TrEMBL record:
Annotated InterPro entries: Cro/C1-type_HTH (IPR001387), DUF5753 (IPR043917), Lambda_DNA-bd_dom_sf (IPR010982)
HTH cro/C1-type domain location: 20-57
Source lineage: Bacteria, Bacillati, Actinomycetota, Actinomycetes, Kitasatosporales
GO function term, MF aspect, one: DNA binding
Classification via SMART domains: HTH_XRE
UniProt name for this protein: Transcriptional regulator
Organism: Streptomyces paromomycinus (Streptomyces rimosus subsp. paromomycinus)
Gene3D superfamilies hit by this protein: lambda repressor-like DNA-binding domains
Chain intervals for the UniProt region annotation (Disordered): 1-28
Length: 278
């Protein structure tokens, strides 16, 4: 038999293919058997195993179902996200996968609009700025903007998750992309606040030291009511799965909501900013 050997360390794509083959063989399956379990042709399976074809999100999730790896930390879907979004912060691709299946999302952002609420023009302005600074390439900028759109699909899911968003006042006052881009972005916030499954609040500067977080934080509740949190610095992200570590963050988030402006007062602030009044 002609068998192409892959070096799993050569690339994330090769590591995916090598793991797929190893998992298949550990189950005693031929490529035809795995193809039947996953709903793909044996030729497609062979192409992914040997690195000739890049796996897709659908393929990765199908592999997780076939091998029973759904819900674990090291899924095929996580590996796919590393292939697709390798330029992103450590931990973020995996977080995005959980975010897409969350029952509840609680987010707090500082300085810029959170990705789930960004318009495409706002996201592009941020990405273009990073390119001009030499922080990322034009290709990576395009990837970031595409990911923003992909993540927002969770808001259109049926049933949609409960999404609670608290934005530091700096997020809504910091100009990004010019007046037209900011006006459309502020309008997006008002639309978001009007949805039946959302809560929108602004944490005003006047909160001072009552603000419990100094960095962005997201707490997600999965369908089985388990909790996860994601936080990031300039260099790396951290996905926390231990409930004992996440519960204090959830408590602090509730304290943040209690001290922030109400949704009606927050929307009124946004409307004032759109009118150009302080």
């Amino acid at each position: 038999m002609n068998r192409k050997e892959l070096n799993p360390d050569s690339s994330p794509q090769a590591a995916f293919g090598a793991r797929l083959r190893s998992s298949r063989e550990s189950h005693g399956w031929k490529q035809e058997d795995l193809a039947e379990h996953m709903g793909y042709s044996s030729t497609h399976i062979s192409a992914v195993e040997t690195g000739r074809k890049i796996p897709t999100l659908r393929f990765s999730r199908s592999a997780d179902r076939a091998f029973g790896t759904e819900g674990i930390a090291d899924t095929f879907e996580r590996q796919w996200r590393e292939i697709k979004h390798g330029a992103l912060l450590e931990g973020f691709p995996e977080f995005v996968g959980h975010e897409g299946r969350a029952a509840e999302i609680r987010l707090y952002e500082v300085g810029v609009m959170p990705g789930l609420l960004q318009t495409s023009d706002y996201a592009s302005a941020l990405a273009d700025s990073a390119v001009r600074r030499g922080a990322i390439t034009a290709e990576q900028a395009s990837e970031r903007v595409s990911l923003v759109s992909e993540r927002q699909a969770v808001l259109r899911r049926t049933p949609p998750p409960l999404v609670l968003a608290v934005l530091d006042e700096g997020c809504v006052r910091r100009p990004v992309g010019g007046p037209a881009v900011m006006d459309a972005q502020l309008a997006r916030l008002i639309d978001f606040a009007s949805l039946p499954n959302t809560v929108f609040q602004v944490a005003p500067f006047a909160m001072g030291t009552d603000r419990p977080f100094n960095l962005p934080i997201t707490v997600i509740t999965l369908a089985d009511r388990s909790l996860m949190s994601y936080a990031e610095s300039a260099q790396r992200g951290h996905l926390e799965r231990e409930c004992a570590a996440v519960v204090p963050l959830l408590t602090a988030y509730h304290q943040l909501q209690a001290a922030a402006l109400s949704q009606s007062a927050s929307v009124a602030m946004i409307e004032q900013l759109r009118r150009g009044t302080p």
